[in-house]
Amino acid sequence: DEMIMQDYGSYNHGVTIGKCNYQNVIVPPVNILREETIELLYQTAKECGKESVVFIKEMPSCIPENMREAFTVAKDVRTAVLHMQKRLSRPVEIRNRYSGQIADQIFYRYGWDEQEKQVVFITNTSQDRAYDLRVCLPFSKQPAILDTVTGKYWKVPGAQTENGFVCNLHMKISGSAMFV
């Protein structure tokens, strides 16, 4: 509700209301939005991706022209929900960097840690082959690799795309990596 957003809303890698953070927002048909609400939605769409903020039927005319390209418009509620489901269930994609083929000996587990951060654990199940991989992660910002032995985090070089964060990864024989 926009009145709650005005009183308790802020921006913290998504729309934050109280202790809840939303990186995906569906906006029902409205005629007008407050400037503060538009700014929160715009910041979310810019950081989390165009499909992170979906307007049903049309955007209200109060959205400035220079911000309109940042948002998605769905023709109805069903289509808006499908946009979000696709976004939320976006799979991890792991391919051989050179052939483009799915790396069938690479397995992954996708979930959240105790602090509700996204986590992807990737392992090479081959005992005789290393892999150079192209990995697409369903992250809306640059992840880090957690060294589970030392507890240190390392920034992952790569690029943010419409499909998620894309990076190259060398997987040693029987190696693993944990992205957070």
Number of E strands: 15
The major beta sheet can be summarized as: 4 strands, antiparallel
The share of residues in helices is 10-25%
Overall mean confidence score, pLDDT: 87
Give the spatial strand order of the biggest sheet.
Answer: 7-10-14-13
Overall geometric form: elongated
Spatial extent as radius of gyration: 19 Å
Fraction of residues in β-strands: 35-45%
Q: Report the uncertain regions.
A: none
Plain-language structure description:
The strands form five sheets. This protein has a four-stranded antiparallel beta sheet, with no helix packed on it. The model has no long low-confidence stretch (mean pLDDT 87). Strand 2 and strand 3 (20-22) form a beta hairpin. The chain contains three helices and 15 strands. It is elongated, with a radius of gyration of 19 Å. It has 180 residues and is α+β, with helices and mostly antiparallel strands.
Gist of the model:
With 180 residues, the protein is α+β, with helices and mostly antiparallel strands. Helix content is 18%, strand content 36%.
Fill in the keyword field for this structure:
four-stranded antiparallel sheet, 180 residues, 18% helix, single chain, 3 helices, alpha+beta, elongated, three-stranded antiparallel sheet
Topology (elements, then pairings):
Blueprint lengths: L1 H7 E3 L3 E3 L2 E3 L2 E3 L7 H14 L4 E4 L15 E3 L2 H12 L4 E4 L9 E7 L5 E7 L6 E7 L6 E3 L6 E3 L3 E3 L2 E8 L4 E4 L1
Parallel strand pairs: 4-5, 5-6
Antiparallel strand pairs: 1-2, 2-3, 7-10, 8-9, 9-15, 10-14, 11-12, 13-14
